[in-house]
Amino acid sequence: MALIDRFNPNLNKIEVSMIRQFDQSISSIPGIIKLTLGEPDFTTPDHVKEAAKAAIDANKSYYTGMAGLVELRQAAADFVQEKYNLHYNPDNEILVTIGATEALSATLTAILEPGDKVLLPAPAYPGYEPIINLVGAEVVEIDTRANDFVLTPEMLEEAILAEGDKLKAVILNYPANPTGITYSRQEIEDLAEVLKKYEIFVICDEVYSELTYTEQGHVSLGEYLPDQAIVISGLSKSHAMTGWRIGLIFAPAVFTAQIIKSHQYLVTAATTNAQYAAIEALTVGKDDAQVMKEQYIIRRDYIIEQMTAMGFHIIKPTGAFYIFAKIPVAEGQDSFRFLQKFAQEKAVALIPGVAFGQYGEGYLRISYAASMENIRTAMTRLKEFMEQYENN
Prior knowledge:
Elements: H1 18-26, E1 33-34, H2 46-57, H3 70-84, E2 94-97, H4 99-111, E3 117-122, H5 128-134, E4 138-143, H6 153-163, E5 167-173, H7 185-195, E6 201-205, E7 229-234, E8 247-250, H8 253-267, H9 272-282, H10 289-309, E9 313-314, E10 322-326, H11 335-346, E11 348-349, E12 351-352, E13 363-367, H12 372-391
Parallel strand pairs: 1-11, 3-4, 3-5, 5-6, 6-7
Antiparallel strand pairs: 2-8, 7-8, 9-10, 10-13, 12-13
Helix pairs in contact: 2-9, 3-9, 4-8, 10-12
Protein name: Aminotransferase
Enzyme class: transferase
Domain Aminotransferase class I/classII large: 32-382
């Protein structure tokens, strides 16, 4: 037997992300405009960068505790209490992680064991399933297309009852990637009424919470399910800090006492100077996302107007910075090939919906975390491309 045959067999269930595959297939096209990235096109606020520089100059370059700086955990506790009416003890109910991705990895590896099942409303961000598969658990998707990508209590309860004792957790990501949908307070209350009847973990990926465009703002399931919810967030989207890699886990103390074990042996602790930058972001910069939100709304509305006129069906996103549009031509139901052709002919890259699972096929995702100049150019080229189909 060769050594290659002795790897964890669960790796055979995992492939390179189709988003990455698509990006590689079109990246060599000269001058290509990419509306693909899931990161703000804004820069990290200057005052946050200065806080990091000051930490470096003060030689704050040693390990912090595994849970992160207590000052950062206190700032995070104050932030979510003020913004979302969440109440977590910084001493034992908050963990600082290396981005929301590590927060998910630490959480899922702590919770899941082989044979467990996890419910996931779909289409969904493709980063959950590989982590779940790696530990031998399984994703069960809930198709939300018929309800404009919104999970209903009826859909949720039906799926819970169908899976039985093997069901360990449900993941709810909102505002959602790729659809941009989010939930009203009443909708959150209704989902919580279902979930509290069952002994399952509720993993709430709320990393886009500060990019919620409804008047009421973001409503966290953690407010209604304090004994079941594990709330995951971070500063990547809210403060344009993707490369700083600061994530956060909020959960009951009995949960964090277990999750910190997997967190410890995955990473030890988050980067020290980045944690000092995060303190500044969550205190002085607690409303830094507002400027970005205003620009995102302008971009979102422009794209919707342009693409609707081209025949695309779009559910208006109420958060994040994505538009998930139904492709209106038969050829577009193979979204990967359709968008490869678009990229090759018009030098614009969008993400094929199939990258977000079987229920994303026939759609495309646009990130409007891009300059208005690039967005206008992309819409002009998309209009030309769609007119070619009509003429043919």
